[in-house]
Amino acid sequence: MKSNRHGLQAGKLLGIGGHYVALGAISLLMLVPFLWMLSTSLKEPAQIFVFPPEFIPSSIRLENYTEVLANTPFHLFYWNSLYIAILVTVGTVLFASIAGYAFARIPFRGRNIVFLVLLSTMMIPHEVTSIPMFLFMRMLGFINTHVPLIVLPIFGAGGIFGVFVMRQFFLGIPKELEEAAMIDGCSRWRIYWSIMLPLAKPAIATLTIFTFLTSWNEFYDPLIFINDRELMTLPLALSLFTDEVGTAWHHLMSASVMATLPLLIVFFFAQKQFIEGVSMTGLKD
Amino acid sequence: MESKLNVPLSPDKRTSGTRKKSFNREANLTGWLFISPMVIGFVTLLLGPLLLALYMSFTDWPLLGEAEFIGLENYRAIFQDAEFWTVVGNTFMFSAGLVPLNIVLALGLALLLVRKLPGIGIFRTAIFVPVMTSLIVWAIVWKYLFATDTGFINQILQMFGITGPSWLYNPKLAMPVVIVTSVLKNVGLNMVLFIAALQQVPVHLYEAARIDGASRTRQLFQITIPMISPTVFLTTLLTIIGSLKVFGQIYVMTQGGPDNSTKVLVYYIWERAFKNFEFGYASALAFVLFFIILVFTLLQWQFRKRWVFHEE
């Protein structure tokens, strides 16, 4: 009896051990690319070919970073990505929340049908509309500017998804609050702006992370609309580095580290919100 | 998580007769005013372009010069375009490789991670990090890992005395490499969705099963999998739809090569539209993609509707 119990416990421990081993292996597989990227970014070019490969470089070369910063307008790529992502996020949150509020709370004519039409267009592949959009933007003289990169996501599938998210959230807020304000003679704008919007902070936070990350990582639109180097965003600039520097992996990796690190740091401080925000992608499409 | 989607569409109609009229005019006006930015944006930037794209697909539309209406000629040409069939084959091969791998791995990881063991959060974080990393950075790093001479993977193989192949320059290996890279990039997303679903399974079901002496394997196949199957099915459909639109990693890692072995639909559309500037032909190609995606989307909606009904 006693030994049997011991056997059971041993089995359980073994099971838990196996658990950790399996998880550890997969996690390592996910982290190796980052560690190798960091390691290569600090190596002398000659060290890259050293065999067997060394994870911790024997001498550290920070010039890989300064050279990239000096030889490319890296600060501009950064700035472009950052300010575009911020404008897209602010625009999306603003327009999506006000429309979401109307869809949730104002009983206007045609509300359901408009909402359904909006929702059903979310599945249109971006590649279909991007061809006429390119011609449209060319007609307006917006090729090789940031205008399409800012405007298209706000009113495209991302924005419509935002409307959906905000509407669902507003539907869950008790009506009494609003009715009381209505009796006090508050306008709908004031109800939206001073009562509903502050209450929607959790939904706004999730939508903000989702939108910011989507914009920050966006590749297809910049590829189509941007030609000048100074106007490029980080992903586009990095994708062209691969052609330009060829096998200058130490430069490519230091550029990749610089592009990735800030976001990773933010992620570690706000993991829960990030996972929530990014998981919304699973609901999109 | 899915429950968010099941909120009834028509909100309450509580407003009574006489008040309704005066209420309505103001409500109509404010309502439309509030949604107007979104609606104007939608009409000019989505609906308009969609209709224009449809028209373009019936034309020969070069970068410069006049567009010419040619009816269904583009569509006819597509079906006789040998490269198109290669591309469709590659796209389906990508999906057929990626989707099962992604779903099985995500499910396995979710089952491991749902147990409350000390330190388990670290693993979840590690597996999720690639999801929020830029696809382009991820593809660049993996291109480097799979490089023929300097790549980490071939260096490791060399330590065991194996001369590694030139992964991304071999028509047989390039696609599998892109698939594995893509699975690792996004498996964390499905994993998180599955964890959420697993946490919804009522604990008393397992307790009852344990009292009945059901083994762990039986519990998995008779309780866990059936209970989360709606989520698994929806996630699978969404993963299929996403995989049909693969582009960024192909652009960075292979540029569709070698020998067109990784050229997928969106890459082909991009190439025809923005490298060759054959806008008419590319639009027709895009509508073929649209149609394929539409089939899966309708399937997903149908399923969602039935499932919601079932739940209620």
UniProtKB/TrEMBL annotation, chain A:
Cellular compartments annotated: Cell membrane
CDD domains xref list: TM_PBP2
Pfam family of the protein (one): BPD_transp_1
Transmembrane portions of the chain: 20-38, 82-104, 113-137, 149-170, 191-213, 248-270
Record-level Gene Ontology MF annotations: ATP binding
One GO BP: transmembrane transport
InterPro entries tied to this protein: MetI-like (IPR000515), MetI-like_sf (IPR035906)
Entry keywords, A to Z: ATP-binding, Cell membrane, Membrane, Nucleotide-binding, Transmembrane, Transmembrane helix, Transport
GO cellular component: plasma membrane
Lineage: superkingdom: Bacteria
Topology relative to the membrane: Multi-pass membrane protein
Family according to the record: Belongs to the binding-protein-dependent transport system permease family.
PANTHER family listed in its UniProt record: ABC TRANSPORTER PERMEASE PROTEIN MG189-RELATED, ABC TRANSPORTER PERMEASE PROTEIN MG189-RELATED-RELATED
Protein name: Sugar ABC transporter ATP-binding protein
From TrEMBL, chain B:
Cell membrane found in the keyword field: yes
Disordered: annotated segments: 1-20
GO cellular component: plasma membrane
Listed Pfam families: BPD_transp_1
Transmembrane stretches, start-end: 29-55, 92-114, 126-145, 173-198, 219-244, 279-299
Coiled-coil zones: none
Domain ABC transmembrane type-1, residue spans: 88-300
Membrane topology term: Multi-pass membrane protein
Localisation per UniProt entry: Cell membrane
Protein family per UniProt: Belongs to the binding-protein-dependent transport system permease family.
Record-given protein name: Sugar ABC transporter permease
Species name: Brevibacillus fortis
